[in-house]
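Hey, can you fold this one?
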Amino acid sequence: MSTTTIERARPKSDERASASLLIPADVRLVVDADGFAKLCAANRDMRLELEPDGGLIVMTPAASDGGARNADLTMQLAAWNKSTRFGKAFDSSAGFTLPDGSVRAPDASWIRREVWDAVDRRERLRFARVVPDFAAEIRSPSDAIADVRAKMAAYIANGVRLGWLIDPWTKSVEIYRPGREPERLAAPVSVSGEGVLPGFTLVLAEIFED
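Sure. Predicted structure:
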């Protein structure tokens, strides 16, 4: 998902039409954890994330094409998890508070059963302070590859055990693991969940479909 500006309608005196309030691109909003939670509650139609220093990230909804790719990824992950019951699978609407203070919502993620079961039920109703074992991002056309790579590296630095950066535009997958350099696969037919997602293989045909 790409960052964007925020638009809000504002009434004008003596005018029937309302004007848009556009925050300039060089304005950076900084909020604390409580402020972020309130913003999310008041703007449920937006996808928001939080940087470690409190910087607010506003993301556009996925384009129709991107939404279909994301759905295929989530569907395959959820189907595998339903058959194995090894943990919990999450779509792009699930946010997690990571150890560095950031709040991230990967396009798809997964947490082991014993880890998720240890999370307090009240905590689950917020952006749970838990690190996914697995996180995946599908690059959109507007995403700078350097930005998505930095996001993947941050996942690993925060404790994610396996990460995939899926790029439909180059038909490649970059695999991120702790203590290792990213591995790039060119035009793979599928990618393995390795020991983190035992027995899971993501078939890439529909995600890579033009």
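The first strand starts at residue 7 and ends at 11. Let me know if you want another pass with a different chain boundary.
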